[in-house]
Every structure is written in C-alpha cells, then in structure tokens.
Amino acid sequence: MQTVKRSVLTLVACFGLVLTGAVMGQGTYPDRAIKMIVAWPAGGGTDNVARLIAKFLGERLKQPIVVENRSGASGVIGTEYAAKAAPDGYTIQYTVADSHSINPHVFKNVSFDALKDFIPVAVVGSMPNVLVANNSVPASNMADFLKLARAEPDRFTYASWGIASGAHIRTEAFNKEAKIKLRHIPYQGSGPAFAAIVGQQVDVMMVPLGLAYGSAKAGKVKILGVDTRDRVAEAPEVPTFTEMGIPVSLAFWQGILVPAKTPSDVVVRLNKEMNEILADPKVKQALLGVGVNVRSNDLQSLAQLDFYMRDEYRRWGSVIKDAQIIEK
Predict the structure, then answer these.
(1) Cα(151)–Cα(172) distance, rounded to whole angstroms?
(2) pTM of the predicted model, to two decimals?
(3) What domains, with CATH codes, occur in the chain?
(4) Confidence grade of residue 73 (pLDDT, cut at 50, 70, 90)
(5) Residue 283: which region, alpha, beta or left (left: phi > 0; alpha: psi -120 to 50)?
(6) For the chain, what is the total number of helices (H) and then of strands (E)?
C-alpha cells in the first residue's frame, strides 16, 4: 500500500513540475526577436507608422521587433504570408483596413479568411481624411459644393490612387451619404492623383489630411471638410462632415493582428502592452506627427476589438457591393 502511495505522490509531484514548467515557459514570452509583417512598401505611410510602433512595443517587450516588408497585390501578398505564419507570437502583422476590411470583398482569389485566420491585438488609430477641391471649383465650402453636385449629377469628378483604393472606396461611401454622384478618375498612386487636383484636371479628392494641409495653407487647393467626429487639432478651422450634415465616418483603422491559434496568454500580453503604449501622451504625440489619431478608449479589450473588426468588415463590404467595386 505504501508503495502505491509513494508512486501516486511521485506522479503528482512530476505533474506539478510539468505545470510549473509550462507556466514558467509562458512567462518567458518573448525570449527572442519578433517579426512584424508590413504588406506595403518600405518608406510608405503604413511602413512609417509600423516602424514607430515596432520601436515602442520592442522597448516594452525588451526584444527587437524587426519590420519585414512583403508588399504586392494591394497588401494581399503580405497578409497571406502572415495568415500562414506559425501562431507562436513571433510573427505579427501591422496593417491597415485595406488588407482585412477591403481586399476580401474586392479580390476573387484571396487565400485567407480575414475573420477566421487572424486575431486582432490592437487598433492603433486612423488618419483623418479631408475632401479637397481644386481652385477652379466654384465652391468655397462644403455646403456650396453639395448644392452644386446635387443640382448637376456627374458634373464633378474625383481622383483616387487606383481602383479599390482607400480614396475610391471612401469617396463612394461619401457619395452615398451625401446623396451626390461624382465621376471616378483613377490614377497610379496618390502623388499623381493629388497633382491632378492641384493642376485642376480633376475636381475633388478624398485624401489624408497630412497630404493636403500644406498645399491648402499655400493656397493650392481648398479643404471642404474632415471626416473626424470632432475638429482636429492640426486644422481647427476645417469643419467636420457631421457639421455639414453628413454624419459619415471614413476612417480606415491601423493596427496589429496575429495568426489564429496564437496562444491566448501571448495575445493578452501583446494587447496589454499596446494599451499601455497608446495611453502614453508621448506616443500619441509621436503618432500625430505621422498623421495618426490614436483610437478611442472603447477599443481596448479583445472582445471590443473582435466586434469592431467584424463590424468594419461588414460595413466596408456593403459599400463595395453597392458601388460594384469588384476585381474584373
């Protein structure tokens, strides 16, 4: 009998050691460098923000976070890579709404499921968007422009940096809410598209505030409104769309996701660290410097993030379907 008891006690002790080892192993994350996938080119707007976040997160985790650019196919290539990465917390993705809320509705052969193959860790924020008009448009404010556009559907044109680009989809959402019809003129890149506004070849364009504000201050274009809930500190004189009677949010989120099946303790750790980072006033100021407004406090928990991502997926899918923005 004593031999049996001794064997049982030995098994219990061994089991306890295993559990202790597992807990200790979980507590060591991360113990090596983390790879951050960015599905957009180096030096671009998303890449610049990603590198800033990588710096702050790496400092808190006490491990280097190495940004790896895997661009192509409007973000599809890098996102497919991230979806198939080992779900161990050592491959994370910094991305924008295009990859998860837009592309699955536009492209036919996307190999990942935006909702099932990823777990959202943090929404960092979004860039304020403004509607700019060239100086030949006979309207100095949003009210005047809407009056003209409603009186003459198809008279005014809008530029974008390509089919299914952020500017294209945002403007279609704006068209629907404002009850106007603007004709789409796509360009290859935001630079040529914005140059067409300045050069008065196209009438208006939906563009991040940071790209337009300098030109507006120099008198090269007119800003008609901004899509944020409240006026932005960088341009307090610019009225919001809501003030003009168009309560539409055109924000494209930016944030961090990890592959599905990543251990829950890793997801919780990353979420906690990102919430701490985004609460830091210095971080908020640094992000404002690259044009990003930090998200509100109602997007901190993992449950809130999951609901938000699903809602964004449905919201932009509806816009894309209504505007028939589908890959040919």
Answers:
(1) 18
(2) 0.83
(3) 30-126+251-323 (3.40.190.150), 129-226 (3.40.190.10)
(4) confident
(5) alpha
(6) 12, 11
